[in-house]
Design a protein that fits this description.
Helix 1 (11-24) packs antiparallel against helix 4 and helix 1 crosses helix 5 (123-135). The protein is 35% helix and 17% strand. The longest helix is centred in the C-terminal third of the chain and has 15 residues, at 152-166. By secondary structure, the chain is of the alpha+beta class. It contains six helices and nine strands, in the order H-H-E-E-E-E-E-H-H-H-E-H-E-E-E.
């Protein structure tokens, strides 16, 4: 185990940098993202809202047909054989891209060098931490309600993002939070 201290309130800078490295190196779990997240949903460039058809269905890009396809709200099953995860298109005159493409663009500025000035964590440490997180079969970020600053909600969201990118939200790990006796490898400990 290793304790990696970050400056108070800077946890999201570290985890979003990890997300950027995972995305840039294509070490994400594409099947998990397509099956259990809104990553393939199309987002309007003009409003930032999900693109919908006249019936109110969300739209995804059918990679085989080269066209938008409806995704009925509340349905988990893919409406097409191959949804596109990362792309930009025009649908009925509306420029749009997948939610994953929006995420990729958003986290691109979160580099290991940039985050060092915010978090105090050296770039080589965040790279190694990301490698360990991606390689771990059951990675879990343990915060134990220790975040007590104004952006704590965003901190936890950025932690869950790492789990979504790697598919670790659906994995079983042994964790006893009453005694903090961990059988699962803990890679981040929040200050």
């Amino acid at each position: 185990d290793e304790f990696i201290p970050v400056k108070p309130g800077s946890d999201p800078a570290l985890s979003l940098t990890m997300a950027n490295l995972i995305i840039q190196d294509k070490r994400y779990n594409e099947n998990f993202l397509l099956s259990y997240t809104v990553a393939p949903f199309l987002v309007r460039d003009d409003t930032g809202e999900f693109l919908r058809d006249a019936e109110g269905n969300y739209l995804v890009w059918d990679a085989d047909a080269g066209a938008a396809a409806p995704m009925t709200p509340g349905e988990q099953a893919s409406p097409v054989a191959r949804m596109e995860l990362d792309g930009a298109h025009e649908v009925d005159g509306v420029a749009c891209k997948t939610a994953f493409a929006c995420l990729r663009e958003h986290v691109a500025s979160y580099t290991p060098e940039w985050q060092e000035g915010v978090t105090g964590v050296a770039p080589e440490v965040v790279r190694r931490l990301t490698d360990e997180y991606v390689a771990a079969p059951n990675a879990y970020i343990f915060g134990a309600l220790g975040l007590r600053y104004q952006n704590q909600g965003e901190s936890y969201r950025s932690f869950y993002l790492l789990g979504m990118l790697t598919g670790n939200l659906d994995r079983v790990a042994k964790l006893d939070t009453t005694t903090v006796d961990l059988d699962a490898k803990v890679l981040l400990d929040c200050v």
